[in-house]
Amino acid sequence: MGDKKADLAGPGIGTYEEVEKSLPRNYKPLLNPKETQIALFEVKKYIEENLGKELNLIRVESPLIVDKDSGMNDYLDRDGSRTPIDFTCGLGLDKRIDAQVVQAATKWKRWALKQFGIEMGEGLFTDMRAVRKDYFLDHDHSSYVDQWDWERVISDKDRNLDFLKDVVTKIWKVILGAGKHAEEMFPQLKGVYPDFPEELTFLHAEEILEMYPDLPRKQRETEVIKKYPAIFIIGIGWTLEDGYPHEMRAADYDDWVTPTIEKNGKLMHGLNGDILVWNPVTSRRHELTSMGIRVTKETLVQQLKLTGQEDFLKMPYHKMIMNDEIPLSIGGGIGQSRTYGYLLRKAALGECSVTVWPKKLRDICAEKQIHLLQ
């Protein structure tokens, strides 16, 4: 049994000894590196076209760097454990610009809805790139991040669990369709592993805790995904019955404080969540996407009070929410290489993502016939 508090720490397994044990034995990739590149770009085209159709989104450009003082960057967690890369830029300026490399476009997208004149029921998506320097680099995490970040304008009446579930179901339809499209192009992908699950099961984080009250979060996810191979976990960020949140979630974008479900006289909170799947290649849990209905000015203040971050309200982005200058929205991020890896039956993120990997990880993967791109 693991430690629940320790399990709230940043992502990744934690030691390369554990990584070595977690990676599959006798792994044989179903696509070689060249075929993988062809397949992932076909998957990419399918997802971008159909995500746009299902959610009524247009594709826009997104920033790699933002002004440090804008409040636009994503701090991912609320414990300060994962910080952006800071630098100054602007040769010849009296005062150089204090800038940051983005960790995600989460908050920028909501502002971008206004910048691009996006109207009610419309939205945008980006082919987003970011750097997260504080990740433990393993088969499932890298410092280089590629995501489809998306955001859509909603009304106040859309701020409910039924609307969230409807959007999540449409996204799962797109991911599932992309997997079938890849199998049509490369028939060798089919038949070796179980078919992709058609049904997505919705469970609140409190319900999963009730099922496995003594297990920390990652172990709870592992056990529940063995039973339901594709799930959407609702309510990530609110403190659960055992005194811990399911996972640390930043306080200034997803709404995780709003009560949404009453069960046995107990309120469950949160208008956000993650899609996780069972990866039959690695026999492990595998997160694909995180999303949520965004905070109102009231829930922003409430969440920042709970996390002791009320000073954020002085930042330009947060002032825009407080002054009703940017629209209500729903949004999320779909991990690109994570999705490619799942759909193309890969054992490691690095078979789809070109970035830096520690020699220790490269050696472990090479022994298991896992080719990390670099």
Describe the structure.
It contains 10 helices and 13 strands. The protein has 374 residues and is of the alpha+beta class. The relative contact order is 0.18. The model has no long low-confidence stretch (mean pLDDT 94). The strands form 3 sheets. Strands 1-5-6-13-12-11-8-7 form an 8-stranded mixed beta sheet, with helices on both faces. It has a 3-stranded antiparallel beta sheet with strand order 2-4-3, with no helix packed on it. Helix 2 (33-55) runs antiparallel to helix 4. The chain starts with 15 loop residues before the first helix and ends in a 7-residue tail after the last helix. The protein has a single domain, classed as BirA Bifunctional Protein, domain 2.
Which properties best describe this structure?
374 residues, alpha+beta, BirA Bifunctional Protein, domain 2, eight-stranded mixed β-sheet, three-stranded antiparallel β-sheet, 10 helices, 13 strands, 32% helix
Strand order of the largest sheet: 1-5-6-13-12-11-8-7
Biggest sheet descriptor: 8 strands, mixed
Strand content: 15-25%
Helix content: 25-40%
Which structural category fits the helices and strands? alpha+beta
Name the overall outline: globular
Instruction: Give the radius of gyration.
Output: 20 Å
- Looking at this structure, what is the CATH superfamily? Bira Bifunctional Protein, Domain 2
Question: If you consult CATH, what is the topology?
Answer: BirA Bifunctional Protein, domain 2
* SSE ordering: HHEEEEHEEHEHHEEEEEHHEHH
Mean pLDDT: 94
CATH architecture annotation name:
2-Layer Sandwich
